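Async update (no meeting this week)

Hi team, since we skipped the sync, here's where things stand on the single-chain job. The sequence we agreed to prioritize is pasted below, unchanged from the tracker. I ran it this morning and attached the output directly underneath so nobody has to dig for it. Comments welcome in thread, and please keep replies under the output.
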Amino acid sequence: MTTFRSYTLLALGLSLGLGLSSASIADRVEIPVGQQGGAENAGDVPTNGMTQDRVESRFGAPQERRAAVGDPPISSWVYEDYVVYFEHDKVLRTVLKHRPRTGAAPANGG
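Output:
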């Protein structure tokens, strides 16, 4: 019985040690608060509630139209700097594409 308990404690110790060591080598991404925000803060982009017709007339034809999936149907239009998501024919959300700053050092220091 003592042997079983020793092996159990050894296995638990190894599991915790390996788990903590792998967590300590993970990359950490930090985005300053001033650089965070939704696409609505980025200037002229489609806003919630706009119809597909209104988006196309104001912002032009998208580079790609992705078919609707799910229920309710969610479709998306891809533009150069952002993606517009629609529920039925109304804008649900506009998401900016990530653009790294030029000349910025890599986050991992190398």
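Quick observations from my side:
The two ends are 52 Å apart (CA to CA).
The chain is about 30% helix and 20% strand.
Reply here if anything looks off.
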